[in-house]
Here is the input.
Amino acid sequence: MKPTKAKNNNKNKEVSIQEKGWYQKSINEIEIELKTETTTGLSNDEAEERLRKLGPNKLPEPKQVPWYLLFLKGLLEPLSIVLLVTAIIVVVAPYFAGGHPEWVEFGVILGMIIINTLLGMTQELKARSSVKALQSLSNPNATVIRSGKQIQISAHDLVPGDIVILQTGEFIPADIRLISSSHLTVDESALTGESMPVVKNIELLDSKTTILAEQKNMVFMSTFVQSGRATGIVVAQAPLSTMGKIASSIAETKAQKTPLQLKLNRLTKWVSVIATVTALVLFGVLIMIDVFRADHTGISWSENLLLSVSSAIAIIPASLTVIVSIILSVSTNQMSKQNVIVKQLQAVETLGKVNVICSDKTGTLTINKMTVTKYNQVGVTRAASSFTYVSDDIGDIHFVNALTLCNDSIVSEKDRMGLPTELAMYDWMTKMGFDPLTLRHKYMRIDDLPFSSDNKYMVTVNQVDDKKVVYIKGAIDRILDKCTHTVIDNQIVKLTSKMKEQVLENAEKMSAEALRVITTAFKVLSEDEFKNKDYVSKLVLTGIIGMIDPPREEAISAIKIAHRAGIRVVMITGDHLATAMAIGEKLGLVREGFVGLTGEELDLLTDEELTKKIDRISVFARVNPDHKTRIVTILQEKGLIVAMTGDGINDAPSLRKANVGIAMGMNGTEAAKDAANVILADDNFSTIVSGVSEGRNSYRKIKTSVAFVLGANPQIIAMFLIILITGISPLNSINILWFNLIVETILAIPIGMSKSDPNVMSLKPIKNNESIFSRIWLLIIFTITSTAIAVILAFIMGFYVFPGPNAALTGQTAAFITIAFSPIFFVWMMKFRPDRKERHKNFKEKVKDANWALFGAMIGAFLLNVIVVFVPGVRDVFKIAELKWELWLVVVFLTISPAIVIFVSINLAGNQIRRHNDPSYENKLRKRFKKYRRPKIANNYKLLRDSTVDIRHTKKVKDKKQKTATPA
Here is the structure.
């Protein structure tokens, strides 16, 4: 079709129809472009032809990877590949050497691979239903005009050019340009974030705007008709509609991997490479030893291969993924008790590392309920709670009547029906002791003029006793000009120009506080005025009220805690900037140096410009869905961990894009819930703070688990050194697998069940690029070094000093007992040291807060090891030899010696360990030293390094000065 030219307001300038938005095109232009008629609609044949060409009015379903391919993807991870190769070798290699396959090792390794892979696959399958939730919001049917007849069809059969009739209570089935409108208001909060229903009209918009909320002559798919009736032309089906674009954005937006996932992936890749290289080198060394020292070993090449493979397993933290998942699961259960429902386990850890929270306003930071906060009865503006009713005062009587009678809202125990502004009036009057339904029954309505976008007011005529009284409420600019009188001191007096100026000034002050101002008036009708319907003239002004969707009190406190914890909070809303800034100021978001930005201003900025300014922007207003995703992306590119909260369809793409998407559970749409990682069951912003606190504690527990899992694996060091010295391996493959996959796992899991630190929110967020070894490397070194030395000494004592009939087997048994039992004695020290308050708890408090799960695991691991070492039959599988009592004494001492070394090392290096526990310790130390710094004690800085000494020391210095000071 050739572009049709249409003149705009600028003379001698023509713009192609295709260059305009639908909201800028006249009805005639749209009829020409879509080849339709507003009176008769499309013919049935034409509609069927378009449906055949364009397809159904359904949101496209994204291509999904089958579950079995996801499972295969998990098997191709570096850690899984190494373990899988290992499992194959332990079965195949013995065949070539004439031995027996190691089916026990094969089963254990294969079980670990399957568990790890299933965990990853399950998490990916959870994020697939976002677009399906959007599809469920479409109407099953639509009323259209085709071939001049009004019929009802499936909404899926709508095509561009269809004439659709919309009525109250219906979901809008497509993007529609309005032809006619009668008191139409549309709830677009799920799409734009606009808290109030939008009044629609058919007026042509000349200027171009990308803000959906400004396109008053358009209605969009999946929004809701709040009131009124309208007719319009379908201009875009589901795939090309605004909602379709959001659905595509969700499908195309890849879920972000959590920082922990990335760090563990890097760790396992490097460890897998190191393990493979180590196994190859060790295998080569063993072969060389067999060649040159065959009389010492007599080990076949297949056994050497199994030994090398076992050493690779010793290096790889095969149980780490399961341990992390269990720790996160424990935290998830804890968070669910605090109304934080976590859909994806890794979101727990990421929530703890969040340093920016982008929050929707309506229903998240505010209560999502319009509330009357101020009123003015042509006098002083007062708080709504201070309203006092005088039963014989004319002004009070008609003020209350106007708010209750000129009001269509209905509130019952089950339902709340009506416009938010009218519901706010209803609630205020109820709170003040009035029953609106009783008043309506007493003073029956005999006529009315519904609210319209042209008039911006509503009128009712009620029978009040023996009089017919007009009550009116609406915009002050439309009502005040029609008022000639007002009520002062129970008298109706003339409304002077000075009084009007005062009323306008009071209204402007309310507006400056982002309050929505409603004006009320009344008029006693004469019979002639009633017959002629002269309702809106010579009115008596009764007052003005101001209402707002107020901020949650708990959100204000939560934001203060977030700021103290180093977390920045940004408000992103579809409301007007003035309203958003006023709410932001009350919440504590709009501080000195911070500004607000609208969606239109955002469009004018390049990514580079926005990146420079975004650190000083605390409020984004009048934004579209794509704006939210762009804001999140820019923040992430700055290296920040972003949490996004929301409840609407418009929030779904940004929820999926954010590092942590947080949806509202009570008022959130299904699309938002499905796209999010976390759901707040109580829709309370303050609950996020609890989630962040638990997330931070979870990350600390995970790091402690990593320190234990890596530190308690000294096998490879011991094996290398002992093989080089003696030509014999200190451990066989079944010994290594038993410790690595059973004992170590049993002890590591309960670390995540320890009590959370309540003071963790006083610390700054963990940096995104911080190494997973940060502040735990010292623990790892102490642990692995002391344990490796103990294992080496145990083998040497069994092989050289107290050998049995088979010296090699005796040495291996001594080494195995040492490595299997020693972690039981030092695992309780692998935790964050408590602060001063924790250390000063009494015995009962310590017993109550003790990690009894860890205590039980220590007992369980000890008993399992006893069974392996002493029970006949079982000990044969693990190749356990009889030990002399002298060797037993040595082995027992070497088993507990790592615990002693770790304990002493931790206390001697208290400053470094405290950095591991409390990143702010160094700053505290500097401040303390600066505070007490004096020439006489400047050399005592070493004493100040110990927090148990510095306070006593400095107190003695101060007391001494006070005693020796000469009185003035």
Summary: The radius of gyration is 37 Å. The chain has five domains: 5-60+133-252, 268-332+695-915, 338-367+552-692, 371-548, 920-964. The longest helix spans residues 259-292.
